[in-house]
């Protein structure tokens, strides 16, 4: 299996280093292309007016990884997938070749509920799916303690293995995996075996909170002060509910935003005949 690994926290972030170590034996080829700087919550943005500078970096062994050479691209997560698939991968493995799967993560912070829309981690995975390469986005729910990225990556590997064993239903498939809080020092019984749960996204808004502050120069500004998982409502059986119950959530996603159930409504109402202006 040929794997492209990316993320939105940057090439040197602990999540991607730990995940690299966890999946290193999963495929015959493993290429890592990730943003040069942190791109959290950048969504599906692209770089079009500035050059995408490339830096090859040696990542030292840590967090279960033996160390590896990666490519840092000065752009967004979706940029990384686009450039990697169109240029960097075929340059490394031969013209016309492509990865079999793209894995994005492991993000420092859950991407459950509406956060899937904001997430650069998920955007990278959806970009791959759009290009016809099945993909997996992996995120870790953070608590108040220090995350155990190495252990979380092993949980992620178990979930990835389950997904790969079943097989993707199409080349355009994408799944989002969220790992419950996994912290250094947690009792072994709390993290030893998180159950897997396939579930939908919690489709409710966040309780947004902003602190109004004043700069030293007298200008007023706002600072985001809300919690990323503080939703107005949490649906029974949704990814948010299962994540708080310490389950690994697996949610199939799609990039097609068309609401097909109401196409007929709009066709009937608008009409599709020729009209004069």
Topology record:
Layout: E1 2-6, H1 14-23, E2 29-35, E3 54-59, E4 68-73, H2 77-93, E5 101-108, H3 115-118, H4 120-130, E6 135-140, H5 149-166, E7 174-179, H6 188-191, E8 196-198, E9 210-214, E10 220-224, H7 239-244, E11 248-253, H8 263-270
Parallel strand pairs: 1-2, 1-5, 2-4, 5-6, 6-7, 8-11
Antiparallel strand pairs: 3-4, 7-11, 9-10
Helix pairs in contact: 1-5, 2-4
Task: Describe the 3D structure.
The chain has 277 residues and is of the alpha/beta class. It has a single domain, classed as 3-Layer(aba) Sandwich (Stationary-phase Survival Protein Sure Homolog, Chain: A), CATH 3.40.1210.10. The chain is 28% helix and 23% strand. It contains 8 helices and 11 strands. The chain has helices at 14-23, 77-93, 115-118, 120-130, 149-166, 188-191, 239-244, 263-270; strands at 2-6, 29-35, 54-59, 68-73, 101-108, 135-140, 174-179, 196-198, 210-214, 220-224, 248-253. Strands 3-4-2-1-5-6-7-11-8 form a 9-stranded mixed β-sheet, with helices on both faces. A two-stranded antiparallel ribbon has the order 9-10. A hairpin with an 8-residue loop joins strand 3 (54-59) and strand 4 (68-73). Helix 1 (14-23) packs across helix 5 (149-166) and helix 2 crosses helix 4. It starts with a strand and ends in a 7-residue tail after the last helix.
């Amino acid at each position: 299996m040929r794997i492209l690994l990316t993320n939105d926290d940057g090439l040197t972030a602990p999540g991607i280093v730990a995940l690299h170590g966890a999946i290193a034996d999963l495929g015959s080829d493993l290429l890592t292309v990730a943003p040069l700087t942190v791109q959290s919550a950048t969504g599906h943005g692209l770089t079009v007016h500035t050059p995408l500078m490339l830096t090859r970096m040696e990542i030292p062994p840590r967090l279960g990884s033996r160390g590896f050479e990666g490519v840092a691209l000065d752009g967004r997560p979706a940029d990384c997938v686009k450039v990697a698939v169109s240029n960097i991968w075929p340059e490394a493995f031969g013209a016309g070749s492509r990865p079999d799967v793209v894995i994005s993560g492991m993000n420092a912070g859950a991407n459950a509920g509406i956060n899937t829309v904001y997430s650069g981690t998920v955007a990278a995975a959806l970009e791959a799916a759009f290009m016809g390469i099945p993909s997996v986005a992996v995120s870790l729910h953070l608590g108040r303690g220090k995350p155990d990225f190495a252990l979380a990556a092993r949980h992620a590997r178990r979930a990835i293995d389950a997904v790969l064993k079943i097989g993707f239903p199409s080349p355009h498939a994408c799944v989002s995996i969220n790992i419950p809080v996994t912290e250094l020092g947690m009792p072994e019984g709390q993290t030893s075996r998180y159950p897997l749960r396939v579930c939908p996204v919690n489709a409710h808004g966040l309780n947004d909170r902003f602190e109004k502050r004043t700069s030293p120069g007298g200008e007023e500004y706002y600072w985001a002060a809300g919690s990323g998982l503080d939703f107005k409502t949490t649906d029974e059986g949704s990814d948010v509910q299962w994540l708080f119950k310490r389950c690994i959530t697996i949610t199939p996603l799609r990039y097609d935003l068309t609401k097909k159930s109401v196409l007929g409504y709009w066709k009937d109402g608008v009409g599709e005949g020729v009209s004069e202006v």
